[in-house]
Predict the 3D structure of the following.
Amino acid sequence: MYGAHTDNELRGDYTKAKADFTVEQRDHVYGEADHALWRRLYARQAQLLQTYACREFRDGLARMAAADGVPDLDAVNARLVPASGWRLVAVPGFIPDEQFFRHLAARRFPVTVWLRRPEEFDYLVEPDIFHDFFGHVPMLFDRRFGDYVQRYGEQALRLLPHGALPLLARLYWYTVEFGLIDGDEGLRVYGAGILSSGGETPYAVDSDEPRRLRFELSRCLRTAYRIDSYQKTYFVIRSLAALADVMTRDLSALVETLQAQPALSPDRLYDGDEPVPPRGRRLAA
Ligand code: HBI
Ligand code: FE
């Protein structure tokens, strides 16, 4: 997916972007074909949610009322701001790390304005409005998750000048993008990269192929990730409150220690890992 290329060949129109890289969504025109594609994307993912998405995601999605076409960000803000203090801002696409973290730290979530083409129904490299909106926004209705992302933005902004981007990007990747949770409904998904993908949603929860590990902050910060295939390792949190708690401590010292250590491979287990079984092999309650 994305994470490595901020410099060349970005697909969006950056000519009208302001200093903070935001644009006006109304300057981007969606045609009837875009709305039709949106409805198809939405319908496919919505049908997977009841069994795969965590409750907070399902609740958030229901509050967005965005099944009928490409959503208007301001209309969603009218519900999102009172619910959790988060606000959506439109961006041309991938934006520089510092600006991205600045938005998160201020409880503003950047949403790409353009929608993929029909031939990219299943896969695209850069985040589009379907990934950003359908994948990320439902969870932002949850205050605890929103606190986690804001605190992540604050710490990332502070640690970025110290060369911490590789570590910070892994943490975002394995939680906000590809996170799993096992709460009272069993193993479920909260990560946007999974929930905006038709193929990876069942794979992440049911397949015997990838490793699923109990979330541990330093293990996660050290683990390299794949951008060209489904993940080989997922990290499983116990609750969103526990995730938010992780980010209340100052990560400076930990990051400095881990920067001196080699990255871990996503393709194998290490001593001390605590595997979590796929849902398919779990005993009935
Ligand atoms: N910009 N639009 C957008 N979306 C992202 O997810 C994003 C970004 N810029 C930087 C960035 N992500 C990375 O720094 C994080 O994934 C760590
Ligand atoms: Fe994303």
